[in-house]
Amino acid sequence: MKKFFLTIFSLLCIVQLSAQANFKELQEEYAKLGRVLYSISNQYVDTVNLHKLVEKMVINTLHQLDPHSTYISVEDVDASNEPLQGSFDGIGVEFNILNDTLTVVNAMSGGPSELVGIRAGDRIISVDEENIAGIGIKNDRVFKLLRGPKGTKVTLDIQRAGVKELLTFVVTRDKIPIYSVDAIYEIRPGIVFVRLNKFAVTSLNEIRSGLAKLKNKPTAMILDLRSNSGGVFPVAVELADQFFDAGKLLTYTEGANWRQSPEISTNSGFFKEGKLAVLIDEYSASASEIVSGAVQDWDRGVIIGRRSFGKGLVQQLITLPDGSQMRLTVSRYHTPTGRAIQRPYDSEHIDGYYADLYKRLSGGERYHKDSIRFPDSLKYYTLIENREVYGGGGIMPDVFIPLDTSYYSNYYGKLLRLGMIYQFSLQYMDKYRNNFKKTYKDFNSFDNKFEVSDALFNELISYAETKDIAKDEEGIQTSQKQIRRRLKAEFARLLWGVSEYFQVINKEDETVAKAIELMSYE
């Protein structure tokens, strides 16, 4: 009983307590809440699970504050923090559940699974003699079976295409890195392309390591933050710091109970002088907006794409007495010119927050720049060239690139939603992986020489028909080029990795093409 009162007391203290708080009022509210819980526990007509009751109270309290304050149960703490920590203990495979069977997408290079010979396309049938195929297994159960302390062993029975009997592997779990850089390569002579999927504690080291592997020192950088929803705040500041000389304001945070906290650039940047383009879209948020806002306000580079999400609320992670956690909003991010990144919300109608985003995106702003209007009261000016920029939520790019729907069809949408292109690619590689490796000695050879033939394309269409996706001639005609490109990219991913996937995809990406054009201009 005591720990439940402590949990609620912690919540009330964090939300209400400040140097100027009326502590008497806080005590009164705490006493009131304690009396409610005590009465329920000792006088209510039925037996009550106090733990669940208090959790609901915490969840409902946070939900009424703002869109991003959240509660994390004890059971979910590790899983929620893991993507930003940079590693976990496990067997080192990326997987999908296809046709109710756990399928290896990739055995991570140098990881424990690759070391014993597990490879992409393998189907894991049982784990430590427990059957997991055809039983409706979910991701959380997979994690519990495959992850575990470093040094422990797990036995896997695997079905491999072309091999009649099951193959048994004993894998020793190890520390597995979680990568935040999807791709880093020289997209044109002197121009490096960096795609960051999240801001994790390892992000800067990953970027530095990738740059060190390049043959030539880049004179221009394309930083792709599209669909990057954010991550660790200090990493965002650290990445922004890489593009500036010392003494520049990068961002600051401010809240009712939180002093203004400025972040100033140092002299440690590794890319302070080269040309810079930052790519954003409607799903770029939080840390992505801190970096792009600093680059834009100081006229350090060009922002290309579509208006970003508009998440500028700072969450502090607070551990509660029972081991659960809450991410509590304590302040707001601002760009160097003073623009608030957070888009408006009504604390009394939080449920409408994401509905408003849908209205914003469905109202045409992804297709027409003129559909986005800012009042003069939200007008700001950049700090070097005195260009007009606007606040009011999100970062509006310097160069607007509308969403391209010319290739889209309902047929293509079905192929993507149902995973047909990937599933077909996986099945095809089961049969012909060795042939591909013999024909194409490396990715460059594959990229330059391989094209999706009509026969291969038609084989994909026929495969989709066997999965109840009816052939649609009009849809195929509209989306044929995109389907072929996606199929080649999936082959590249399965043969080499995610970086090679993006190297194929980027060849027809209008936003990337515009960045290359601007970075190449003299």
Summarize the helices and strands and which ones pair or pack.
Elements (H helix, E strand, L loop, with lengths): L1 H15 L6 H21 L6 H14 L6 E3 L4 H9 L1 E4 L2 E6 L2 E7 L4 H5 L6 E5 L2 E2 L7 H8 L6 E7 L7 E6 L1 E4 L3 E8 L2 E6 L6 H10 L7 E5 L8 H9 L7 E7 L2 E7 L10 E6 L6 H11 L4 E4 L7 E7 L5 E10 L18 H13 L13 E3 L6 E3 L8 E2 L9 H8 L2 H20 L3 H7 L4 H13 L6 H23 L2 H8 L4 H11 L2
Parallel strand pairs: 11-12, 12-15, 15-16, 16-21
Antiparallel strand pairs: 1-18, 2-9, 3-4, 4-5, 5-6, 5-7, 7-8, 10-11, 13-14, 13-18, 17-18, 19-20
Helix pairs in contact: 1-2, 1-3, 8-9, 12-15, 15-16
Mean pLDDT figure? 86
Radius of gyration: 26 Å
**How many β-strands, per DSSP?**
21
Distance between the termini: 70 Å
Question: Total number of helical segments?
Answer: 17
Shape: globular
Describe this structure as you would to a colleague:
This protein is an alpha+beta fold and 522 residues long. 39% of the residues lie in helices and 21% in strands. The protein is built from 17 helices and 21 strands. It has helices at 2-16, 23-43, 50-63, 77-85, 112-116, 139-146, 203-212, 233-241, 287-297, 353-365, 410-417, 420-439, 443-449, 454-466, 473-495, 498-505, 510-520; strands spanning 70-72, 87-90, 93-98, 101-107, 123-127, 130-131, 153-159, 167-172, 174-177, 181-188, 191-196, 220-224, 249-255, 258-264, 275-280, 302-305, 313-319, 325-334, 379-381, 388-390, 399-400. Strands 3, 4, 5, 6, 7 and 8 form a six-stranded antiparallel sheet that branches. Helix 9 links the parallel strand 15 and strand 16. Helix 1 packs antiparallel against helix 2 (23-43) and helix 15 (473-495) packs antiparallel against helix 16 (498-505). It is globular. Residues 1-9 and 11-20 have low confidence and may be disordered.
